[in-house]
Amino acid sequence: MKNKYFLALIISGAVIILDQITKFLVDINMALHQSIEIIPNFFHLTYIRNTGAAFGFLAGGRSSGRIIFFALFSILAIGCLIYLLKTIRPGQKTAILSLSLILGGAIGNLIDRLRQGEVVDFLDFHWYDWHWPAFNMADSAITIGVILLFYQMMRQKTISIAL
User: Fold this and answer.
1) Where are the alpha helices (DSSP H) in the chain?
2) Which sign, positive or negative, has the C-alpha torsion 132, 120, 16, 38?
3) Is pLDDT above 60 for 1?
4) What are phi and psi of 60, to 5 degrees?
5) Which is nearest to 2 in space by CA: 87, 90, 85, 79?
6) Contact at 8 Å (CB) between 11 and 104?
7) pTM of the predicted model as reported, rounded to 2 decimal places
8) For the sheet containing 119-127, what is the strand order?
9) DSSP assignment letter at 161
10) Does residue 53 have a pLDDT over 60?
């Protein structure tokens, strides 16, 4: 039973550390809105700050109400993820991996919101002038975690929980 918590801690911790290091490096090495072409017409590093949710959803000004809303929503989601990790059976490695990736990403973005009131985004994928909203390592971990969780649920029809 303790192995599942250790695994979740290692995965979530790695996501948080990778996320915060990459955001820090972007913050100290790039000017806001600076864009560095990596792959022409496909990928840039573009430094932006996101006041909204994932992919800029509900972005706008830096109102304190918005910051509080997103922080409280993140804390609630983190609590739910910890509860789900507690109820997952130790042998369900894919579910543990999925929830740990989502948890690490949620904590990584929450750190930014609490520290700066917004989230640093910098991964900018596009096809010529058509841009996907910029995102970061935490968003990537959340997305991968959700895809893996969905795959696990479809493969086994459900996730077993220990009651």
Assistant:
1) 2-29, 64-87, 93-116, 137-156
2) positive
3) no
4) 180, -145
5) 90
6) yes
7) 0.86
8) 35-39, 43-50, 119-127, 130-131
9) B
10) no
> Of 19, 112, 121, 124, which is the active-site residue?
121
- With b for 16 or more beta-carbon neighbours within 10 A and e for fewer, the 69-85 pattern comes to ebeeebeebbeebeebb
Active site residue 27: no
Residue type, 135: F
How does pLDDT run across 144-154, given as a tens digit for each residue?
999 999 998 88
pLDDT band, very low/low/confident/very high, at 163 (cuts 50, 70, 90): very low
Instruction: Name residue 47's amino acid.
Output: Y
List phi, psi (to 5°) of 33.
75, 0
Q: What is the pLDDT of residue 12?
A: 98
Express each pLDDT in 55-90 by its tens digit.
Answer: 455 555 556 677 788 889 999 999 999 999 999 988
Dihedral of the alpha carbons of 54, 59, 61, 65, in degrees to the nearest 10: -70
Is 129 catalytic? The answer is: no
Which residues is 45 bridged to in the sheet?
A: 36, 123
The mean pLDDT value of the chain amounts to 88
